[in-house]
What does this fold into?
Amino acid sequence: MKHNFGAGPSILPKEVFQEASEAVLDYEQSGLSILEISHRSKAFEAVIQEAELLVRELLNIPEGYSVLFLQGGASQQFAMVPMNLMPQFGKAAYLDSGVWATKAIKEGQKFGTIDVVASSKDSNYTFVPQGYVIPDDAAYFHYTANNTIYGTELFETPLSPIPLVSDMSSDILSRQINVADYGLIYAGAQKNMGPAGVTLVIVKNDLLGKTGRDLPSIFDYRKHADAGSLYNTPPVFAIYVAMLNLRWLKNKGGVAVMEQENIIKARTLYEEIDRNPLFKGTAKVANRSRMNVTFVMEDPSLEKEFLALAEERGLVGIKGHRSVGGFRASIYNALSISSINVLVDTMQEFADKHANK
Ligand SMILES: *Cc1c(COP(=O)(O)O)cnc(C)c1O
It folds into this structure.
């Protein structure tokens, strides 16, 4: 058995894979594969409507927000956000808490002035900056909720005098949020919501259409909202699989139940990292992510040997990102506590082996 700690595309529930594979062969006894049906068919309309309803229900989205299923990944949102929300020659504010934030800033600079309110780059992003001032004359304030590479997460929503925009690619649906606090939330699905190929955007309608910019239709949120995410051919299969995963989450009890599980999962792993003399965490304790747990060895020369043991125990995808090194265990919703326990046991086994030397 494999335990998939990969950062993304990442683990989804086995039941979802099972049902998706059946739909590839024969979608609901229609004699057709989900891969060959029209995106304008009744069958797919039901899928995308259910996906949207589930997102609305699971995140308790208030009136006045559009829920969009787009393509291009979170990276496309780095450009679409300023295009749609920042006036021509305008200004937006960003928090620099990691590589994804930096990329969002770079794209934003192509459309206006970006005010970077704070950065933790000098410490290789081991913490999320605090105590900055958000200018009230900027169009919006953008921050990355969970820094997938560095294993840091911001649990409190920043207090902002201007609309909040958040990249929640790697922690969407892992904890409760108050959508009304935000102007726009986006998330590439392949971390915690579904397979690669679909990107979720939740946007407050009254922020749109105010930039004075003549946007290409495909990059205009309003075009997608007006068409119910069917402006052009959407990623049918990715939306279908995401819908199955949203159903799974609802059946588990929803985001509040998931959040409690995620707290226990993360705590179990961090406790072992702090207890085990061979390992240490890399992120500032107060900012430790519940989704991506980054850690290194006190003696880096042992890392290869630990990776080999982990592989033997069926632990997949725990090698750290090159910019942090060591290890990263991504522990998204679909990863069960039993997989965490296998990782913890393997760390203990490794420590025991080296204690006896
Ligand atoms: C993975 C990731 C991205 C990039 O997502 P793509 O869908 O590959 O463009 C952006 N932001 C965060 C926080 C991520 O984890």
